[in-house]
Every structure is written in C-alpha cells, then in structure tokens.
Amino acid sequence: MANYDFKSLYDFLTQTPEQGLRKMLVDPKGLNDVYFGLMMKVVRAGGEAEFVACASKETFPKIKMGPAEQKIKEVFWKECFKALQSRGLLSPANKVA
Fold first, then answer.
1. pLDDT band (50, 70, 90) for residue 29
2. What is the pTM of this model?
3. Which among 6, 5, 10, 1 is positioned nearest to 94, based on CA atoms?
C-alpha cells in the first residue's frame, strides 16, 4: 500500500463541517451514506494518531458497527481511498529524507 498523507486528511475531516463533507463525498455510485457514516465514526473514535494508524494499517478502532457497516468492513478502506483520491482529498505523503 502506498504511503498517504493521513494527517492532512484527518485535519480536513475534523475541521470541515459534516454537512459540507457529506455534500462533497456522498455519491450513490461511490461513497454512500454507510461508508460516510463509518468513516466519520473512525474519525471521531480517537485522535489524529489513532486515525493515522487505522488508515495506514487499514484497520478499525474499537467502535460499534451496525449490520450495514459490518458488510462493508472488508472493502471500506479501499473504497474510501479511491473516493478521497478522486476528489483530491488524499495524496501521497511527501518523502522524508
């Protein structure tokens, strides 16, 4: 998996009003309401470090997931990364020398 700038993504997701994020990201053919809701649960579950760790390892923090969220758990990160990249919100991390 490529290295992405998850810190900047976390900052954007926490500093942008949820209604604006929903308008920008939710799309019936891509990131639907279930994906968006699960992404926001992951963002709210812990701090920046936990979000970065979960996203980079494609894991989840300890959160309650409903039946719909359980169904998408396996493909969640891949679909989120694809949707976020297509909207220019997720970019590769800068190489550190």
1. confident
2. 0.87
3. 5
Q: Which two tokens stand for residue 4?
A: 């992405």
Contact 87, 20 (CB under 8 A): no
pLDDT in tens, 14-26: 999 999 999 999 9
Kindly tell me if the per-residue pLDDT of 1 is higher than 70. Answer: no
Which residues fall within 8 angstroms of residue 44, CB to CB, at 6 or more apart? none
Backbone angles phi, psi at 94, to 5 degrees: -70, 140
Token look-up 């309650």 returns 64
63 with 18: CB under 8 angstroms? no
Q: How far apart are CA 3 and CA 26, in angstroms?
A: 24
